[in-house]
Amino acid sequence: MSTDSKAPVPKKRTVPAALRPLKYVGIPESVLAWKPRLPSRKWCMFWASLAGLGVVYYDDRRQCKKIMEEYKERVRGLSEQSMHPLEHPRKVLVYTAKYPGDDNYDVGVRFFKRYVKPILVAGAVDYEITSGTSYGNLARELRNRIHQRRRNLAGVEPWTTNTVAGTSLPTTLSPAQYLQRELEGAVVLIGRPALKEWAWALKEGWGTTIPVKPMDFSEKLATELSEDSAFEEITEAATTESDVSTSTQSHERDSEAALPAVPTVPGRGFSVPTQAGLQSMQRRPPFSPFAIPPSAAQSQSVVTEATSELGSKPEPELPPMSPIPAQPPICFVDFTNLVGFSNIPRRIARFFYRREEVRRGAEAGLSIVLGTKNDAREFQAGDRGTIPRDPPQGHDLDWGLEEEAYYPSTFFKTISNIEKWRKSYYEELRKELKASREIARGIREPTKAEKRNMPKSEIELRGQRFDKEEQWRNSEHGFKILDPAAGVEWDESWRGSLRVLVPRSPDEHVPRRTQEAKDSSGEEASVSS
């Protein structure tokens, strides 16, 4: 005879005596009899890990806030000092460049606003941020500013300080006052990319010969693009040969289908993409027996312009300046942007240890607020004639050199990617240009697909090509500046003109005003008013 074995029924837990009165207020007995117990082993490990990470995160952010408040308290006394109503506060220039491999060009700006700006605000120091949005953009912007400054110093361009030219306001600064205020400020470089682009701008801005009239680099590029054969009309045979061969070959023009083109002369053609398109797409005027033929009038104007250009005097130029004028003291902020899959472990570790970045940014802010051009040290570049062009260069030229070890691999493919994009674009451009010309001249009707999405006109294609070439060439130029294999630009004419803000001692601070001093100053202000 078999007996059914049943699992023992767990003993029902009784309600503790201390909780029994709660039964009569409507609380279920199952709630009062509930006995807490630990979760499973895996759940215990999960909650323990989560609690540990939470404690580490909370403690790090608490330390960050404490460090920032300590540094702000050391400079807050400056913001309590009184100023004249027409007096300008101290102002620093902040330069950030696009970090290699990162599509977000404002990471340096965010670092400055998060860790350096609070110290400047506490010390009542004004700032102006100049951020590069692409590779080399900061360098080109600073170069243009230096060129304008040279023309101001030479007297060929009027000074425009902080107001509209020709106006006079109580807060208007004279050129001497404007330069003095600039020297009393500082130049803040966020990261090694900003250092490289700033140094390149100094060398190209002060150390090259420039024309007296401002140079339009877009106009120069447009003239260069107008002299190549990208928009020339070629025969079918030449098209086939050019597709097979990679070398440059001369192509014959289709004289029957070609429109009258503007002859190319130095300094003319493709001055602006839209103008070039209008010149290439212009139609013949109506026939008139008294009118000069377009070809003859065009040739006559070209000859007249060429003769006037040959007979004109050479444009005056400004020679390089050596030594360069004194520059505001420099403050380099070490900033490493960890980009890429290989840097994910470092980013996780940095997330739980932000106090290091906070202290580094606060130290830089303290040096800016408390430092002046009088106690700044001279820029250390090494002995004359011993400075190499390739890193490591030594001394201050190696600021942030370790940052370049964390550049992602995508940055090193910049040149090859541009070459691939350029080749693909010009192959597609040839097809679009052919279709656009055939439709515009009535050689054929547009297809159904072309009716839904009409091909771009030659004017639009020229403008598109100009924009792409300008972007590609700027990126190539910026890569050459930021390449880790290239060092920081240096010129011996900079010696004595560059100074560096020194770190401040741990006990240096600005004493705050007492309440009695504040009350007395307020009474004096009321009496004087």
From TrEMBL:
GO terms for cellular component: mitochondrial inner membrane. InterPro entries: Mt_import_IM_translocase_Tim54. One of its GO terms (biological process) is protein transport. Its main location: mitochondrion. It is a single-pass membrane protein. Keywords: Membrane, Mitochondrion, Mitochondrion inner membrane, Protein transport, Translocation, Transmembrane, Transmembrane helix, Transport. Residues 505-521 have a biased composition (Basic and acidic residues). It is found in: Mitochondrion inner membrane. Residues 236-268, 293-318, 444-465, 504-529 are annotated as: Disordered. Belongs to the TIM54 family. This is Mitochondrial import inner membrane translocase subunit TIM54.
